[in-house]
Design a protein that fits this description.
It is built from four helices and six strands. With 132 residues, it is of the alpha+beta class. It has one domain: Nuclear Transport Factor 2, Chain: A.
């Protein structure tokens, strides 16, 4: 089966790729800035700027190895569902019709991000969920 990538919002794709880059560089400030006010970290809901920053800081400290992503693929939420099925229940109720899904591949495994455009500010994409 051939797979054709759908056209994604260019600003959303830029935010997604920047987030992955900041994450790989362990840039706590810039990574936190691209998170939504409420984020689902693999089933753990974290709200508030200080809480999100502290959670990322603990995560970075617990995983001191260098982070390298070999490939980053950005697709629409609908395309991700068609290709991989519904996301795990631990990620909660995601509006994938209005989302971008990012696959950041590592040598072994990787990271899946879900971004949504904020209702109040068109063009402002933020990460709402992460899982591995």
């Amino acid at each position: 089966m051939l797979w054709t990538q759908a056209v994604v919002d260019p600003l959303g794709e830029m935010v997604a790729r920047n987030f992955v880059d900041h994450l790989a560089n362990r840039d706590l400030g810039r990574t936190t800035a691209l998170l939504s006010a409420k984020v689902n970290f693999d089933g753990k809901i974290v709200e508030g700027e200080e809480a999100r920053s502290a959670f990322l800081q603990r995560t970075f400290a617990a995983h001191p190895a260098t982070i390298r992503f070999s490939r980053v693929t950005v697709m629409t939420g609908a395309q991700a569902v068609a290709r991989f099925g519904r996301p795990p229940a631990r990620l909660g109720d995601l509006d994938l019709d209005r989302a971008l899904v990012v696959l950041a591949r590592r040598k072994i495994g990787g990271l899946v991000l879900v971004l949504q455009e904020e209702d109040r500010i068109p063009g402002r994409w933020r990460v709402v969920a992460l899982t591995d």
